[in-house]
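Example record used in the benchmark description.
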Amino acid sequence: MNCASQIYLVIPKGHHSTASIYGCFDTEDNVEAFINRFKTVADYDVIELDLNPNYNSNKSMDPYFISIGKTDPEPLVFYIASSIDEADDAYAEKFEVVFCNGQNIDEGVFNMHLFAMDKRVAVERVKIVRDAVIAQGEWQAAWEKQRGKVVNALEH
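Model output (structure tokens):
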């Protein structure tokens, strides 16, 4: 039997069971037919995945996620990202300033995805970008935007 196409499932290392996967389908019609194959419909979740997705990679660097405070010398959260979306965010060097409700301007955090050779290089790059964001007034703007959301929510 000659297959026209193949699909491979990549699962976490050490998890050698596919018991929780009920099927893999190529159209929504086939998914619907499978879900509705019995009189009583079971409770299923359908996850859509791209077959052969495009992704950004770098064989000499890893995609990192770092969360660091406004003046912190070390990250609050640090990990090597493993998802395709996070690798794409790292390639784009996406970042954001985040404030939880009730925090003051100095208690926000700076979150960034980036590619780097190692943790030291990643942390230094994040600090440079964070400091530039502060110097350019983006931290203040994010704080004012968050305060506006909080005030608006309290008024309603």
